[in-house]
Design brief:
single chain, 378 residues, mainly alpha, Na+/H+ antiporter like fold, 17 helices
Length: 378
């Protein structure tokens, strides 16, 4: 069953791309949403029990390889002109996560003995990612069943918000926020996997070279992390992969490789299927419904606070949405959301900010948890 699950994660994105070319509904939602929903659907079929470990392993391989492939076609020289609005909005998103988790955690403090731990773990996941939530839970010695339920609730809420980001978010935000005004990327931007023309024999050499370079970059970053820390640490490894990907993109030869961006997006589609398969609604049904509400309110309130502060400081709609994506989902969903925004110029900076969130998540999450415990006199 595990082998079938892994093969499904790898092969289904091709079917999603094919469907997006031929069917209006699939094209409207895009391959990212189709892959995410497919994973959720299979995970919740009666009698089906998927391996969470297999899904996590697939995602752990797909993301590090996708990051350099997405960066190879980036023009780093455009990043400085994007920095101010993105850094401000990213900082506001981090602040919003802390304020939201702290306020909601304090409200629920009489209902959970681990309320301050949960608040810290949610800051970790909404600034960085699931790895941060797991690390914070381990440091705070939270119960394992708490983490499982938090992760399932987060995946369900995150799936709904991702659907919003990929469909109506930009149109809605442009009603009350100013549009993005920086110079767009010089290449046209499509939905991930939409053009099949790049998947031809003529381009396989470039794509193969790019994939080999991405593997080499990942190997160097992972090896360097092992040598420096004596074990594999996710944050420094991903930061190393991003840095090397940026360095490689400075080469005109690497930047001119055809199909590397599309190949990176395919790996992200694999990630979407794998992560969707972790969203088993049966975990939520058998758990504490109040805890599920806790998670969903924290996420929703963080989004509202971040959007309101960005509007107040006149941050544009695209920068606000890409920073929201960077903090709530990390680097993995930057490509698909930037595709939905039709704004390729934000991919590189968005990936960098997503990785910055991974680096900051543990610190902000632990500080939030310990601060709440101190305020409660614990």
């Amino acid at each position: 069953m595990t082998v079938i699950q892994v093969l499904g994660c790898i092969l289904f994105p091709a079917a999603a791309i094919w469907a997006g070319e031929r069917y209006r509904v699939a094209k409207f939602f895009g391959p990212v949403t189709v892959c995410y929903l497919a994973g959720i659907l299979v995970a919740n079929l009666p009698g089906v029990r998927l391996s969470a470990e297999a899904a996590l392993r697939v995602s752990e391989v797909a993301v590090p390889l996708a990051i350099p492939l997405l960066l190879f076609s980036s023009d780093v020289r455009q990043w400085p002109r994007l920095a101010r609005s993105l850094i401000i909005s990213f900082s506001l998103a981090c602040l919003a996560a802390v304020l939201s988790a702290g306020a909601v955690g304090w409200f629920f403090r009489g209902q959970f003995d681990e309320w301050w731990k949960i608040a810290g773990m949610l800051v970790g996941v909404y600034v960085g990612g699931t790895a941060n939530m797991a690390a914070i839970g381990k440091v705070l010695e939270a119960r394992s069943e708490t983490f499982v339920l938090l992760n399932a609730a987060d995946l369900m809420a995150g799936g709904l918000y991702l659907l919003f980001l990929l469909t109506f978010a930009q149109r809605l935000f442009l009603r009350f926020m100013r549009p993005f005004t920086a110079v767009p990327h010089h290449e046209p931007f499509e939905h991930p996997g939409e053009p099949l023309g790049v998947w031809t024999r003529h381009h396989l050499r470039d794509m193969g070279f790019g994939f080999g370079l991405a593997v080499a970059i990942a190997a160097v970053a992972v090896g360097g992390t092992l040598l420096a820390f004596g074990k594999l640490e996710a944050s420094p490894a991903l930061l190393g992969i991003t840095t090397l990907g940026i360095v490689a993109s400075l080469s005109q030869k690497v930047r001119s490789l055809v199909g590397t961006y599309e190949l990176g997006e395919y790996l992200l589609l694999i990630f979407c299927v794998a992560m969707g398969s972790l969203a088993d609604a049966r975990v939520l049904v058998g758990g504490n419904s109040t805890l599920v509400i806790f998670v969903w309110v924290v996420m929703g309130l963080a989004i509202v606070i971040h959007t309101a502060l960005s509007k107040l400081l006149r941050i544009d709609a695209d920068s606000t949405l890409i920073c929201s994506t960077a903090t709530i989902y990390g680097p993995a969903q930057i490509g698909p959301v930037a595709a939905a925004l039709k704004n390729r110029a934000l991919v590189g900076p968005g990936l960098t900010l997503g990785l910055a969130g991974l680096a900051l998540g543990n610190y902000l999450g632990l500080l939030t948890a310990w601060g709440l415990r101190w305020l409660a006199g614990g």
